[in-house]
Amino acid sequence: MALFLAAPALAYDGPVEKKTFALPYYNTVGGKTIKNVKVGWESYGKLNEGKSNVVLIPHFFSGNSHAAGKYKPGDAAAGYWDSIIGAGKPIDTDRFYVVSVDSLANLNVKSPTTVTTGPATVNSDTGKPYGMTFPIVAIRDFVNVQKLLMDSLGIRKLHAVIGASMGALQAMEWAAGYPDMVERVVPVIGDGEASAALIGWLNVWAAPIMLDPNWNGGDYYGRAEPVKGLAESLKVVTLHAQGRDWAAATFGRKWAAPDKNPLDSFANKFAIEDTLDKASAARAAASDANSFLYLVKANQLYFQDNPGGLDAVVKKITARMLLLPAVGDQVFPPENSRRLQAATKATGWVADYAEIEGPNGHLNGVIHIAKQGEALKAFLAK
Predict the structure, then answer these.
(1) Alpha-helical runs (H) found in 17-62
(2) Dihedrals φ, ψ of 359, to 5°?
(3) Is residue 68 helix, strand or coil?
(4) How many CA atoms are closer than 13 Å to the CA of 2, on its beta-carbon side?
(5) I need a labelling partner for 341 at 20 to 30 A (CA). Which of 58, 132, 230, 376 fits?
(6) What is residue 306's predicted lDDT score, i.e. its pLDDT?
(7) HSE-up of 120 (CA within 13 Å, CB side)?
(8) CA Rg, the chain, in Å?
(9) What is the per-residue pLDDT for 9?
(10) How far is the C-alpha of 68 from the C-alpha of 22, rounded, in Å?
């Protein structure tokens, strides 16, 4: 969900290689078949002889599998969690083999360092991009594809699954869907269910895209794309994720230009408006609108197959759990994690819990994750 991320100062010792996992077909949880599936993946550290030192890192909504390091020394920024992945860091690559995988329908499909199959992919049956004919995919589908990658590598146990936001949802789906395989799970800025409020917010995120005439029902490939609608959607996501404290501390009520009073013209903007507009437009030009919509749907469908709700989910999990919500998070408020912790207690065990502090709301879980580095390190050592 991140649009404004600070780059870590120190990078995992690279270079990092983007690899591709390919499947001739994949059957979705919705009963549809996708042919010629490809997803990118990265690894950091070395797999031990027993293949027992694997830490899997699913990524957040607007991210990809680049969790640590750099592809080449001159890269401007390292992977999003480089502060905690590397030699001697909380997720210690001297000890663990860390794997991160691009999601299906990845938002960053236009990036040369993202490998994904989704609505922008050419359907081999028609010779045209799928668009909205691409099968609906759920969070469980992302997990199932990751499971097939693990199978191909001969990995039968995961020391831990650790993810932020949408990555936290995948971590929970791993723990509930494959309890015999997952030993530890760390949902960072996540939840154990998709609440009605979250489903509604995701609808708000998606709405500007569908109101853009260029969206054309998802049939826009090869013509003008709905970049204006996508930019507005990304703007909503950014403000929702960063939150009030970030907005107040970063912008206050400053004008975008000292000599252009917003009172005088609609063209004169406040600083926060101007920044959101410019950053979101730049990000929209590099992203795919249909993929955004598919990710929205996947998040809404989180644990769709668990009608018993949070209690039913927790009863399926046997892994140790560390909950890491973020102070000021408006997407997955800390009270959601506290409710999840209470649900674990009701089943006879208690999840560990610690909060990530910072001024960035939901994005504290990405930008300031190192503040709970010691808690994470201790949990992985249990």
Answers:
(1) none
(2) -95, 5
(3) coil
(4) 24
(5) 58
(6) 73
(7) 25
(8) 20
(9) 42
(10) 23
And the tokens for 174? Answer: 């791993």
Instruction: Report the C-alpha gap between 374 and 58 in whole angstroms.
Output: 21
pLDDT recorded at residue 305? 75
Can you say whether the dihedral through the CA atoms of 21, 22, 23, 28 is positive or negative? positive
Strand partners, 188: 164, 324
**Environment class of 214 (CB within 10 Å of its CB; exposed 0-12, middle 13-18, buried 19+):** middle
What are 230's two structure tokens?
A: 């996508």
108, 94, 118: which is closest to 37 by C-alpha? Answer: 118
Token readout for 252 is 């206050």
Residue in this structure with the two tokens 């509604």, named with its chain if needed: 200
Three-state SS for 100? strand
Give the Cα separation of 26 and 318 in Å (integer). Answer: 27
CB half-sphere exposure, 353, CA atoms < 13 A: 19
Structure-token pair, residue 370: 């190192």
Respond yes or no: is residue 329 known to be catalytic: yes
Report whether the peptide linkage leading into residue 15 is cis, meaning its omega lies within 30 degrees of zero.
yes
**Does this model's pTM top 0.90?**
yes
Give the tokens for residue 223.
């013509």
Q: One of 102, 141, 191, 329 is an active-site residue; which one?
A: 329
290, 131 in Cβ contact below 8 A? yes
What are the mean pLDDT values of the chain's consecutive 10-residue runs (382 residues total)? Answer: 45 84 98 98 98 98 97 93 97 98 98 97 97 98 98 98 98 97 98 94 98 98 98 97 95 98 98 98 98 98 83 94 98 97 95 97 98 98 94
Measured in Å, how far apart are the chain's first and last C-alpha atoms? 31
Integer angstrom CA distances of residue 278 from 232, 275, 292, 342: 11, 5, 19, 42
- Tell me which of 43, 100, 103, 165 is the catalytic residue: 165
| Contact status, residue 102 vs residue 41, Cβ threshold 8 Å | yes
pLDDT at 22: 98
Are the CB atoms for 86 and 13 separated by under 8 Å?
yes
Task: Choose the catalytic residue: 59, 66, 159, 362.
Answer: 362
